[in-house]
Amino acid sequence: MLKVNFFPKISALARVVAAAGLLIAGACVPVAPAATTSQPAESMPAEVEITHYSGTDTAPVKPETVVVADMAALLSLHDLGVEGIAGLLGLGVPVPDQYAAALDNPDFAELGSVWEPDYEAINALEPDLIIVAGRSSRIYADMKEIAPTVDLTVWEDFYNKFQEQHRNMGLIFGVEERVEERLAELDALVQDVSARTEGAGKALILMTTGAEVTAYGPGSRFGFVHDTFGYAAADENLERDATHGDAVSFEYILEMQPDVLFVIDRASAIGAEGKAAAEILDNELVAQTPAWQNGRVVYVDSFAWYIAWTSLPAFFQVVEDVEAGLQ
Q: What is the mean pLDDT of residues 189-206?
């Protein structure tokens, strides 16, 4: 596992690939960026108007010097074969090996963190474009003072906005065809899993942080389990639009009688010390739930779900994790 100080497994689903006419072999595996398909230079506009999370801005097409302030955006750009990323602001979290190739650039400038940007260093790069999203959305206005800035945050109406923001990347970087290929691969997998969740029981999403356990339902940051994939919710009354979830007890988990549990280990995702999620939930109350008794407790890829879920590589992983709840 790679740790970068300046930065805050997937089954092929053979039946989907066959049904999609062998869309792309190994489509659900995060792959090394393929050669991008670009419009002829003479036909491309110099600028494009982008409507994004924080407004509408004009962005240069195929910018040469780009600052990225979001790990998920970086992973998607790498997946799409985009070059020209000059600097990064991150979260200082460990990056698992399967995602580390996106960071393998000795020329990346150190620009501070999402929480404490080095505005002087960012300005010195004279970027053509700055990309913020998610946790860095709050610095959109500040970044816009330096260079054209787009906010590729994905939140409400998750799956539609996920696709929309990736199409925005395609427009900006001239890789529209590559974006459509990857979204089509992803959607084939999403639709396959979604077609099998009806009647698969009630799901409950949990996140552990140290000894604390929080729960998430429809409309929350992890609500795509219900809203996109169609799992019934074990509790329809959890706070919607929740970022941090509702704190819950083991008695609550037993009372909800979930048929499947999806568990995010936040401490693991951010490289913090503390008990692992599997240890926290291994108790006599949780052991009485249908999910535990039937072997349907899914300890998900916590980096993918908590840090990078709005990226192409991470969401392919999310699909695999969600499918695992069916088995």
A: 97
